[in-house]
């Protein structure tokens, strides 16, 4: 039991190129990093290789920190999860100020609680039929919450992400782009600066536009004043496979635009 507890508290969730969970791994040296809900570093993966990348300027002598949990949650939820899984209470500035909690829970409480319950019930589908069920559930909830919840509500945002993923897996590209486009403003709000999740979301939407021959829109999304490029250059490094894919797609868009 002590060994199991140590592994549970110190393992890292391994993610693929689009920041989706694919497994867990134990990286002893990285387990020495402490938590902050507003960290100055993030962890990204290249296969099974763990990379520690800074997301903002770090002062000499400043401690390197990462977030042990999903920072999108409101303060009370983050505190509950940290206490439940890691047995400590966070006192970072983000928790002290409860910054952006109002935006995260905006809209009618009854509506977002219903969406929250539905989001928590979703398990990653393993078949086309299960993806169809997820999409139908998302569509019903998004329809019923229209006018009651803004897309900045974090549970609404998660529902949009699930709807986008479902459409991608069902090859409904146009509908996937619709849901993905609705998430971008919220990703910009909750993942400011150099955050890999924001870069990956921009890239996913850009790929959907590219696949539908929307080359000017795809190029603008991939560039966005070079946001996606700049973020991924910082968070993933220029040699990362995802960075190479982004640059290749961007160059293809530019080449197509020159020939039109």
Automatic annotation (TrEMBL):
Keyword entries, A-Z: Methyltransferase, S-adenosyl-L-methionine, Transferase
Reaction equation(s) it catalyzes: L-lysyl(4)-[histone H3] + 3 S-adenosyl-L-methionine = N(6),N(6),N(6)-trimethyl-L-lysyl(4)-[histone H3] + 3 S-adenosyl-L-homocysteine + 3 H(+)
Domain (SET) ranges: 1-69
Biological processes annotated in GO: methylation
Gene3D superfamilies assigned to the protein according to its UniProt record, in alphabetical order: 1.25.40.970, SET domain, Tetratricopeptide repeat domain
GO molecular function, one term: histone H3K4 trimethyltransferase activity
EC number annotated for this UniProt entry: 2.1.1.354
Main EC class the enzyme belongs to: transferase
Top-level taxon of the source organism: Eukaryota
Annotated protein name in UniProt: [histone H3]-lysine(4) N-trimethyltransferase
